[in-house]
What does this fold into?
Amino acid sequence: MTLCIGALADQPMPLEHCIVLCFDYMVSVGDAYASETEYKFRRLSDELICMFAGSPSVAKEVALLYEGHLKRTDLSEENLVEQLQIPLDRLKARQANSFIQRRLCISYRDLLDKGERWLGKERWEWYLNAIDAHSPRVELIIAGYVRESPVLCVARRYGNGLLLEHCTNFCMIGCGSDRADPVLHSRAQTFNTLLPQALYNVYEPKRAGEASPPVGTKTRMYVLRPPLDGEKQIRCDLVDKPGEKWLRGLYRKFGPKPMRRCPNMPQDALVPAMLKWPLG
It folds into this structure.
């Protein structure tokens, strides 16, 4: 129940690659109730952060998996996707192990190795299919810098697991993505869009996504910047109240708005046509 957006951009004068991030605060329990109280931004390491859509408890679990994994891993552009996929696969294995231990009091590994012999083929396959059908209940955007190169990745549901992909321009997750995605495409956002334009390009689809009931109206935006020379910690700027006011003003001017009165149509705009079958 959310909308999170990440977009690559360029900071002019002095030129540096940066990443614009945006999310709402909405969290809900089914269709029963909801509140705008969930901060969907988590630090994973000195180099990377994540935003999440879905279950906050699962998001915290996978964030802790990433924190532990990244402490032991030397990331590079070549191994980035492979290494960032590992915690997602561990999450699926942990969920499978928890399910099997609750139901059968054995481990997931025992089910794979001995389950057919212990349970019979039909019941064994039922449990494997049940595990495969489990939804991870979370999606992620991972952003930051690896060896001073900007990183923007998205982990979306693929089948009943999570698959990580490297993004070249922008990405988004959450219930409001269907409404927000075409808006950001219409602004032709790319990795070399200058930061002021990129901030508005990301803000506009967030506002468009609010037409989806599960997306909250509260908005938080950040800009990630590469570490300073000789440091590893990425820099992060918050879009504060003056920036929010500036973006709201731009949205009032350039965002979609109702037509007060449609102009009269030209007399020759419509002419009689002969219908044929097939049409053409």
Summary: The chain has a mean pLDDT of 91. The chain is about 35% helix and 25% strand. Helices lie at 56-71, 80-104, 108-119, 121-132, 177-186, 195-209, 241-254.
